[in-house]
């Protein structure tokens, strides 16, 4: 049975659109229809219905009829705006990246040693390696980290609903358990809570600090280049082995360490240690399709399921 539905944006000029969908169509189909109608590929949004508007919740594979959607239903499209950096599984070919710790800059912290960049491998697990190093003193705890994330999501369906994840929780967890899937904001939030540390994620391009778990007493620092995560640590003297690093800091130490972190990131920016994900040229490593920027890559990933992209000149 065909349903006549009305989409309208929550903000901006009135722009109502009438669409037709089958009552057997799924919530995922409805979201795709909304994204196509308003050119929202790569954007994060929710659907709301009724008055006052309430979030349309359910599994992405549920039919519209089972969700109570009837012909004439008006649906509000609420675009979620976030200034926090998003991540996608990109492999950079042109970024001027330190190849190892010896190539990376460091900043002196008087009386303490030097703040150093601990470079992580480019293997789609750089976030998990960086956080594993800072929280567990191991860069090889990726599988454990992924398992923690999947279990947390399964145990807390209210916080990590299908709507928040953009797919079913089972699908998200299965994807996160794959070695070729990158972590991002959701994973940082979960691991911050799990380890009881504040995570300061510094965007290399802008120098802005994104904080997770601000109520925790201990603090760790990671650096995000646009496509890659590395860890920051305090080394007691030049060329000291990593096992002598201090990786967590108290709130009392925060002003001094964060100042050094910003200086280090300034030097990374001077070396162009970042990638502008809005405009860089990409190619899908799985089908060779040429793409421009993160939004096109995200849209391509949603349409095809492909997750591996490479930057090219």
From TrEMBL:
OTU domain residues: 115-235
Keywords: Cytoplasm, Hydrolase, Metal-binding, Protease, Thiol protease, Ubl conjugation pathway, Zinc, Zinc-finger
Gene3D superfamilies: 3.90.70.80, Phosphatidylinositol 3-kinase Catalytic Subunit, Chain A, domain 1
GO molecular function, one term: cysteine-type deubiquitinase activity
GO CC terms: cytosol; nucleus
Signal peptide as annotated in the record: none
Residues annotated as transmembrane: none
GO terms, biological process: endoplasmic reticulum unfolded protein response; ERAD pathway; protein deubiquitination
Reactions catalysed, as given in the entry: Thiol-dependent hydrolysis of ester, thioester, amide, peptide and isopeptide bonds formed by the C-terminal Gly of ubiquitin (a 76-residue protein attached to proteins as an intracellular targeting signal)
InterPro entries, alphabetized: OTU_dom, Papain-like_cys_pep_sf, Znf-C2H2_OTU1-like_C, Znf_C2H2_type
Pfam families listed in its UniProt record: OTU (PF02338), zf-C2H2_OTU1_C (PF24560)
Principal location class: cytoplasm
EC annotation from Swiss-Prot or TrEMBL: 3.4.19.12
Subcellular location: Cytoplasm
Function: Hydrolase that can remove conjugated ubiquitin from proteins and may therefore play an important regulatory role at the level of protein turnover by preventing degradation.
Protein name: Ubiquitin thioesterase OTU
Organism: Protomyces lactucae-debilis
Taxonomic path: Eukaryota, Fungi, Dikarya, Ascomycota, Taphrinomycotina
């Amino acid at each position: 049975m065909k349903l006549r539905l009305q989409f309208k944006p929550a903000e901006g000029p009135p722009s109502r659109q009438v669409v037709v969908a089958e009552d057997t169509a799924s919530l995922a189909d409805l979201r795709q229809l909304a994204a196509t109608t308003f050119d929202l590929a790569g954007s994060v949004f929710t659907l709301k219905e009724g008055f006052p508007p309430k979030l349309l919740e359910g599994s992405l594979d549920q039919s519209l009829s089972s969700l109570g959607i009837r012909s004439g239903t008006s649906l509000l499209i609420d675009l979620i705006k976030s200034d926090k950096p998003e991540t996608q599984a990109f492999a950079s070919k042109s970024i001027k990246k330190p190849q190892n710790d010896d190539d990376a800059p460091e900043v002196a912290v008087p009386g303490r040693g030097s703040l150093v960049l601990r470079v992580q491998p480019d293997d789609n697990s750089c976030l998990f390696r960086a956080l594993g190093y800072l929280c567990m003193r191991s860069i090889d705890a990726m599988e454990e980290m992924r398992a923690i994330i999947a279990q947390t999501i399964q145990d807390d369906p209210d916080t990590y609903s299908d709507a928040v994840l953009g797919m079913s929780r089972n699908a998200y967890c299965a994807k996160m358990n794959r070695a070729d899937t990158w972590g991002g904001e959701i994973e940082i939030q979960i691991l911050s809570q799990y380890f009881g540390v504040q995570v300061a994620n510094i965007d290399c391009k802008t120098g802005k600090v994104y904080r997770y778990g601000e109520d925790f007493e201990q603090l760790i620092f990671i650096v995000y280049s646009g496509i890659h995560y590395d860890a920051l640590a305090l080394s007691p003297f030049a060329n000291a082995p990593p096992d002598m690093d201090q990786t967590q800091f108290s709130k009392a130490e925060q002003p001094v360490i964060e100042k050094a972190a910003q200086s280090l990131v300034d030097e990374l920016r001077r070396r162009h240690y970042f990638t502008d994900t809005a405009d860089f040229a990409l190619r899908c490593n799985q089908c060779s399709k040429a793409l421009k920027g993160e939004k096109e890559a995200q849209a391509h990933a949603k349409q095809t399921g492909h997750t591996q992209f490479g930057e090219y000149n």
